[in-house]
What does this fold into?
Amino acid sequence: MKFFVDTADIDAIKELHALGMVDGVTTNPSLIAKSGRDILEVTKEICDIVSGPVSAEVVALDAETMLAEGRKLAKIAPNIAVKVPLTWAGLQTCKTLTDEGTMVNVTLCFSANQALLAAKAGATFISPFVGRLDDINIDGMELIGDIRTIYDNYGFDTQILVASIRTANHMKDAALIGADVATAPPAVIKGMASHILTDKGLDGFMADVKKAGIKIL
Ligand code: E4P
It folds into this structure.
């Protein structure tokens, strides 16, 4: 499973990238707003660090303007994936950009039927939002399983990019289902390293290191 990092925080991207943990980056208008930076500038900086797909989202709602925005975003770097919302206008934009050879990430997906339409429109990535479904007591991971089954039934190339990940368990569940990509905030990716028994075990070892005066350097 590829790891994308869901942030526009340059320092966080650099830290994870140095460990080989970043196969790509996803941003959205809220993450860009949080960065306090110009969308074109910060996206370019991310593309200079990461060679994998970097999702940059359009902000228009109509297909014509979305397409113009998408074409402008695509010019930032060859690894840009233009992110469009799962609306009819977004699907129209997806089809045109895909035909032009631009990667497209169709976002804000909350149903298997939406994912089916995105695949038919040639999306490179479909982004189902598991956390936001869990928030309204609908099992987000069940949707990932349904999309996996549908895409495998018909051999769609569209990659399932699990989004709105909130916990390390979401990462594990996405990997078990066979999602192609999971995008998560830096804290969730770092949190995957934590286990209470690792901390407890290390405390015990350190106590014995101190007691026995063990030194290596
Ligand atoms: C993904 O591409 C989205 O930017 C993101 O995962 C949304 O996550 P949220 O629901 O935690 O805002």
Strands lie at 2-6, 24-26, 54-57, 80-85, 103-109, 125-128, 159-162, 181-184. The longest helix spans residues 196-212. The pocket of erythose-4-phosphate is lined by residues 6, 26, 28, 107, 127, 129, 131-132, 163-164, 183 (CB under 6 Å).
